[in-house]
Amino acid sequence: MKTMEPMDKQKAMRMAMNGRMCLLSVGIMVILVAVTTTMMYGINMILIAVEATKGTEEIVELMAETNMTVGMAWAMGACFLLTAIVEMFTGISAVRFSNRVDRAFLLKKIVLVLLGVEILMQIVLFFMRSLSLGMLFTAIALPLFMLWGVTRLCKLAEQDPERVYAVQTEKVKEKQRQESAAANGKSLRERAMMKASEPKPVREIKENAEQTPEKEADEESVEQTSEKEADEENAEQMAEREADEKITESTPENGTEETVQ
């Protein structure tokens, strides 16, 4: 990014504000003209052509007075509608990209296309004897103002190719804060994952290796003591059973000896 002096920064800021305001205001005006004027002319011409094909006397007499045929009415209606579509697309693009320096060259191409379409439309109206000064002004002057505004942004893009926005509005600042917060959160997650995937040091591995034999020896001693206790309990139970059996065997013999005496 090029370093700019204070005077150059002020000049660039004025250029950015002028270009943005011009594109924003003229873009809205072009959209309104397309909806309220150009599209209405096209719809009216198509309705006139439809009524003329039906044979309505008033429409036929009106077209005869103006030396207009049904084919000319259809052609004018189609031209007006196509021009309205181009005007709406250009106006929406100008409003949308009015603060984007990185889209300036694309927007300039769109404005040049609109200017060419408007010039062709005025030529068609001139040959059909339907040209008016008000329509000529709105059709040529508005695209020229829009071209002047987008040229300001193109100069900014040439001076600073890395610049994205013309003016740092509150919406832009909030978007940049959200992007930086998301990037910081992502970097923290990446650091945690990298730390978890790092291999353990040799010292910890040795300590773990030294601790494992001691744990195994303790477990073996516990198992041996439990086995000894179980054997002793079994031996005691066997001794008690043998004593009980001897007692039961001796009791009937003593009873028979007493009866014989």
TrEMBL record:
* Compositional bias (Basic and acidic residues): 187-215, 238-248
For the region Disordered, give the residue spans.
Answer: 175-261
This protein is called Uncharacterized protein
Composition skew (Polar residues), residue ranges: 249-261
Where does the source fall among the domains of life?
A: Bacteria
